From TrEMBL:
<dbReference type="InterPro" id="IPR045936">
    <property type="entry name" value="DUF6356"/>
</dbReference>
<keyword id="KW-0472">Membrane</keyword>
<protein>
    <recommendedName>
        <fullName>Capsule biosynthesis protein</fullName>
    </recommendedName>
</protein>
<feature type="transmembrane region" description="Helical">
    <location>
        <begin position="30"/>
        <end position="51"/>
    </location>
</feature>
<keyword id="KW-1133">Transmembrane helix</keyword>
<keyword id="KW-0812">Transmembrane</keyword>
<dbReference type="Pfam" id="PF19883">
    <property type="entry name" value="DUF6356"/>
</dbReference>
Length: 69
């Protein structure tokens, strides 16, 4: 049973040629950028003169990063 539990943590990272810790780091950085993009979009919604392209620039960068993997 222990073997199957570890597979839950390692199968997907291995499918993208990463260790668990490498995948954790990538996913944490990725989520941080998504949070920043969301905050920029929220501020832009309230104050349209701020962060006009910030959220879309972050999302485009993340999109290219994900597809380079």
């Amino acid at each position: 049973m222990a073997h199957k539990v570890t597979d839950l943590f390692t199968a997907h990272p291995a499918s993208v040629d990463e260790t668990y810790l490498q995948h954790l780091g990538f996913a944490l950085r990725f989520s941080g950028w998504l949070i920043l993009a969301g905050m920029a979009a929220l501020l832009h919604a309230l104050l349209p003169f701020l962060f006009e392209k910030t959220a879309s620039n972050i999302i485009n960068t993340l999109h290219h990063r994900i597809h380079k993997r």
